[in-house]
Amino acid sequence: MPKPSTTSLKLDIETKERVQRLASARRRSPHWVMREAIEQYVEREEKRERFRQDALAAWNVYQTTGLHVTAEEADAWLAKLEAGKDAAPPKCHG
Description:
By secondary structure, this protein is mainly α. It has three helices and no strands.
């Protein structure tokens, strides 16, 4: 585990009080609440960025190849999966 480093953070009084109330209700320190919030935010935003990058890559592949599946094909495949059937994804076509 990397060695922790100190970072200062300026909060307005209202937000600081909210963090303190939440920390008290959770029987945690304000430091723990803020660290947890930052960790969850960073994890969520990293996932969002990976999704965005995947979407851009897929768009670039589509623009290059023209290969795709229709919404109807994708919906039919997802309906089979939702029904518990083991279904192969639809084949891409131009």
